Amino acid sequence: MASTKALLFAIVAAAAVLGTVHGASYTVGAPAGSWDLRTNYTTWASSINFRARDQLVFKYSRAIHNVLEVSKADYDSCSSSSPLGAFQTGDDTITLTAAGVTRYFICGVPGHCDAGMKLAVRVEAGAAAGPNAAAPSPTPVAMAPSPMGTPSAGGRPALPPSSSAASAGSSVGFGTMARVQASLLAVAIVAAAAAFMTASGASYTVGEPGGSWDLQTNLTAWASSIEFQSGDELVFMYSAATHDVVEVDRSGYRSCSAASPVSKFQTGDDTVRLGGVGVRYFICGVSGHCAAGMKLEVRTTPRKPLCNSPPPPAGTTNAPPGLNGTPGGICVGDGDSPTVIITPSYTSGSVAPGSSGSVSSVLVIMLLLLGITF
Known about the structure:
This protein has 374 residues and is α+β, with helices and mostly antiparallel strands. It contains 7 helices and 19 strands. The protein folds into 3 domains: 2-123, Cupredoxins -  blue copper proteins (Immunoglobulin-like); 178-201 and 305-372, no CATH class; 206-301, Immunoglobulin-like (Sandwich).
């Protein structure tokens, strides 16, 4: 038992150290946007404390955007004449290697920086444990009973309990421990599965099962049959030789104009994540196709939390979490910060928007739960 417990805590410590070494990964603009013309990057960056070794991930359509790292002067003037670095793959990862500096990024396509595609990131020093951190309190150790037993009222030592009674107590303790282990393991597995489902969302191939992204499918009827939630994905499957996918604003959607696209896709197998709450608009940019019906309006709602809280008993007061109307049991929500809540032994962990730490948090919680039972 002792060796197993030591192994579990070693794994937890290694996971914590690994997360510290590599830092967090932030997808620029997530969860509500990306590297595009719609996202307010000043607001997005102000909600995150960037630290050395963190990573920025720029996701965008390389047909209409790029990423340039520039000096402060070029950032202020939106000049792309002397870039410090240029990226144009559509999925670029940049590591913030140094602390105490500000790094500047813009889109180099004419007019895009002036329209708001610019990002300033202040990098702070990584958090470290101080030398005066409080040491954990020692665990009380129960004293073993004396072989002679405890003194009786008359001063004579009482006889120790019989071996049969001790054996029965041991059996009861072992059975209880086994049930506790099984219960905690089940809680950890359900929490991990719920977190994965919440983070991933559903994937919908546009037009299926009866059609696709084409001129025959009634895309309005298709979309009306689905309740899209934040975190879901749209998959556009089509012939790249005859169609494309253009995301536009409401005005462009209503007039079937692709003159000012929000983003554009042309591979024939394009996946678009519905990262925020609101309405998104897509059309085919090939002349005449939108007017013929190749247009899709998608309304995204907040993701419903996955909870198993039972209803509160009548007259319950001062109930633990989950019995007084607050989330309890296991509750994995979406919103701006996915949360895992586990009761009893109330444990809660939250993840910053755009961070990749949710899976690691769930794994650590699982290991801690398993370690408690040994």
